[in-house]
Amino acid sequence: MIFTRITGTGSYLPGQPVSNQALIALHALDSSDDWISERTGIRARHIAAVGETSSDLAFHACQRALAAAGRSANDVDLIIVATSTPDYIFPSTAALLQKKLGITNGAPAFDVQAVCSGFIYALSVAEKFIRSGSHRCALIVGSEVFSRIMDWSDRGTCVLFGDGAGAVVLEASNSPGVLATALHADGSHADMLSVPGQICGGQVTGDPFLRMDGQAVFKFAVKVLTEVANEVLHAAGLTVDQLDWLIPHQANVRILQSTAKKLGLPSEKCIVTVDHHGNTSAASIPLALDEAVCQGRVQTGQNLLLEGVGGGFTWGAVLLTF
Ligand code: UT7
Prior knowledge:
The chain has about 325 residues and is an alpha+beta fold. It has ten helices and 15 strands.
């Protein structure tokens, strides 16, 4: 039987951290450091430089993940990038990343669009490729430049998001690995969180900025993150007390705490990194995972529950032994 294991992690945050105070001053926002940090747990975020794209951030994160896995670029036989802020309409960010990494072996490369659940979607897809025996070494990346789709006059959204990338190398293995995955979507909630713009005839039509009903997203997120965590635990025959770490999408510390509480998981077992990079959408879970690995908190043999929720609405979870 073929199992799948994460063999390396890497992440990248562009430039210097931008504090709440600095962001407020830069965009003349009617807000305060106290409001942002108390309501969201966010203290700083990173903003990509002009011209710096999702494939650029992904490139740095992937180099680190490959080094951690002891793999070279041409060992990779599958590349999946989760992003809602691709470099271009096409080609895919994954194809551009393949070129930047110097992967010349013809490995398939494609993007997954599931907003903040994108990394969970990409990891679940890659896991199925590898378990089928068709591929052995996948590079799974979440990379975003959400600063490009912020309306800097909307204080209800622009203080929440940031730019960054995270990556993992997922390989075929004789021992588990990924224990259970679950993916869901409900398009009837499409309006709750969206960038409802289009490009047509050389013009942007509609609204090219992120729009969100924050309170509705909050309630929906806690509900489905709790449900999908229980779903994968049940599928793998594990109980909450057998979990070493919960690594949720980093949106708002209050969402993370509420989810951990509803699951009956001590809050110390929930990895929180949103304070210093804000909500980086598809990048947030691999960023949080890599940071916890680099700090020595996440260790080989531990049980991790990764889960995300985002626009669509989409949500999902991956339960694995690291
Ligand atoms: O990947 C998923 C992405 N989405 C999310 O994670 C969002 C989930 N939702 C949330 O995190 C929270 O709903 C927010 C942080 C967005 C908002 O927090 P809230 O506690 O739900 O606040 P609220 O929307 O009820 O707004 C309370 C007040 C309002 O003023 P009034 O109407 O009471 O006078 C807002 O206008 O806070 C005001 N407000 C702000 N004040 C200062 C909204 N944004 C800000 C701000 N600074 N940045």
